[in-house]
Amino acid sequence: MYSYPFGSLKPIDTDGNGTYELVGEQRIVGMDNTDTVSRITSVWSYQGDGKWKPREVEYSTFLVKQQEEAVPATLGK
Q1: Is the per-residue pLDDT at 45 higher than 90?
Q2: How confident is the model at residue 55 (pLDDT cuts 50, 70, 90)?
Q3: 33, HSE (Cβ side, Cα atoms, 13 Å)
Q4: Cα 70–chain centre separation
Q5: Helix, strand, or coil (residue 73)
Q6: Interatomic CA distance for residues 57 and 62, integer angstroms
Q7: Using an 8 Å Cβ cutoff, are 10 and 22 in contact?
Q8: Three-state DSSP class for 41?
Q9: pLDDT averaged over every residue in the chain
């Protein structure tokens, strides 16, 4: 398994205090790009001097994951 860099990184004022934080989303994949194992969402606050500190990190994964057919079953009928 490996983690991709941030797929998105958006400035959002998450707590309504007028200061924007960065909300980032990452995927963790298995054998290849199509095998998403889990996701990480994080909120980063700027601390000054070029430093960012993670304020909140959410990790989610699948309990059950069924693979859909790559080619519809009706194809060729």
Answers
A1: yes
A2: very high
A3: 2
A4: 24
A5: coil
A6: 17
A7: yes
A8: strand
A9: 86
In the 8-state DSSP scheme, what is residue 1? Answer: -
Token representation of residue 51 = 């430093």
**Quick check: helix, strand or coil at residue 13?**
coil
Could you tell me which residues come within 8 angstroms of residue 11 by beta carbon, excluding any fewer than 6 positions away? 20, 21, 22
CA distance 36 to 7: 13
Query: Which amino acid is residue 45, in one-letter code?
Result: S
> What φ, ψ does residue 30 adopt, rounded to 5°?
-95, -120
The two three-digit tokens of residue 26, written as one number: 């990452």
pTM of the model: 0.72
Cα 38 from Cα 60, distance rounded (Å): 6
